[in-house]
Specification:
Helix content: over 70%
Number of domains: 2
Largest sheet: none
Strand content: under 5%
Oligomer: single chain
Radius of gyration: 24 Å
CATH architecture of the largest domain: Up-down Bundle
Structural class: mainly alpha
Number of strands: 0
Order of helices and strands: HHHHHHHHHHHHHHHHH
Shape: globular
CATH topology of the largest domain: I/LWEQ domain
CATH class of the largest domain: Mainly Alpha
Length: 412
């Protein structure tokens, strides 16, 4: 008798086909060991790719005609898309996204999110209704999934939390459908109302009934920051790819990458580690409050800062030796400043104190905006790079011992 036949025969209660399949896999790989905490799943990362496309659409929409109106519209679109993404981050934290029906729900939501992303360039114009309906579908998928999870678990506490969530999320999404169906100034009013209801609802309705898996939640948000930084690099590559590859373009690309690297360092070197540890140590109710404040709310200006900076870099590549217009100059400096302010607010929420060096650099960047529009674009980018990388160098040397203690891995 062959080895495979012997293993199949010893399978006992297994069905014949199952025994053959099992025999092809080592026994120690057939069952996953019990894990204390869930990790971000591949399906969640797959879902995030659609959100990245939405980010790309927003930055492309604004940079194509960088006006104050377009910048505000882009930030409004980003705000509603972020809150939709954040809701799915909470969903994946509540239940394993790859289990049973949730897998199908998430794939369906991806389709709706893709349609909404495709409609981004004309969300305030001809594709407003398409955007609104697709966004409404994204939220309905999420509320439906939460409801099914609560029923399966017979969890009345979660069911109540979902009902409170739906009481603001669904009306906010419906307002965007109405905004798409009408035009003129009324459309702007409905967009403002939708954002207020969406963002304010989570505070007004409370966090009772929500519980947080700290490791998964912090990892998911860290990965979306990383993905957004990757999109900024893509923006540099796309912008440079449309131009003759001269010394100026290569210099600007490297400087843009250096700023992106500084933004990465500013978050992942210490902030991400301390934030996750603080979230783990908090009591259950405080965990939910921290997750809402530190991650759902305060991570948005981080993502927005990265996107706004990417808009400024795109225009810098086009106008290397010319002066930047007011909006690209504000985006180039203000995007980095917004990111640093958000990181400092994140520290204040979790630790109780602001990061003064980052606030100082943010203030310098904001004050530099008028000058950034008065010097060659490449020089403006160079100064932003110098300030960003200079801040990181200062922190590395100023807080050497603290960084070592934070980053020291516990013994195995």
């Amino acid at each position: 008798m062959s080895t495979q036949q012997t293993e199949a025969a010893s399978a006992g209660a297994l069905e014949p086909q199952a025994a053959v399949d099992a025999a092809a896999i080592p026994a120690d790989l057939l069952e996953a060991p019990a894990e204390e905490e869930r990790r971000v799943t591949s399906l969640e990362l797959f879902f995030d790719l659609v959100f990245v496309f939405a980010i790309t659409q927003v930055s492309g929409y604004v940079s194509a005609d960088a006006t104050w109106t377009r910048l505000l519209q882009g930030l409004a679109i980003l705000a509603v898309l972020w809150f939709a993404w954040s809701s799915y981050a909470w969903l994946g934290n509540t239940a394993n996204a790859e289990d049973g029906f949730l897998r199908v729900v998430l794939l369906g939501a991806m389709g709706a999110m893709l349609i909404a992303s495709l409609a981004v360039p004309h969300a305030f114009g001809s594709d407003g209704l398409t955007f609104g309906i697709a966004y409404f579908a994204v939220r309905i998928f999420q509320i439906g999934a939460y409801t099914l999870v609560a029923r399966q678990r017979e969890d009345d506490e979660l069911a109540g939390a979902v009902a409170r969530l739906a009481s603001t999320f669904v009306p906010a999404a419906a307002l965007l459908v109405l905004a798409g169906a009408i035009g003129g100034s009324a459309r702007t009013v409905f967009w403002i109302l939708a954002i207020v209801v969406d963002w304010g609802g989570l505070i007004a309705r409370g966090i009772e009934g929500w519980h947080v898996n700290a490791g998964h939640f912090a990892e998911r948000h860290g990965l979306i920051v990383l993905i957004a930084l990757g999109e900024s690099i893509v923006a540099i590559g796309v912008g440079a790819g449309r131009l003759p590859l001269g010394v100026g373009v290569m210099t600007a690309a490297v400087l843009g990458l250096a700023v992106a690297a500084a933004l990465w360092w500013a978050y992942f070197d210490v902030v991400a580690l301390v934030g996750e540890r603080r979230l783990r140590q908090a009591p259950d109710r405080e965990q939910a409050l921290m997750a809402r404040d530190s991650y759902t709310y305060l991570h948005f200006p981080m993502i927005a800062g990265i996107v706004v900076f990417a808009i400024g870099v795109k225009r810098t590549l086009i106008d290397l030796h010319a002066h930047l217009a007011a909006v690209p100059a504000a985006a180039l400096c203000g995007g980095v400043a917004l990111y640093l302010i958000a990181l400092s607010a994140f520290k204040r929420r979790n630790i109780g104190s602001f990061n003064r060096p980052r606030l100082v650099v943010a203030a310098i960047l904001i004050a530099f905006v008028p000058a950034a529009a008065s010097v060659p674009a490449l020089l403006a980018l160079g100064i932003v790079t110098l300030l960003s990388c200079g801040l990181i160098a200062f922190e590395v040397f100023r807080y050497t011992e603290t960084r070592k203690r934070i980053r020291r891995q516990p013994p195995a």
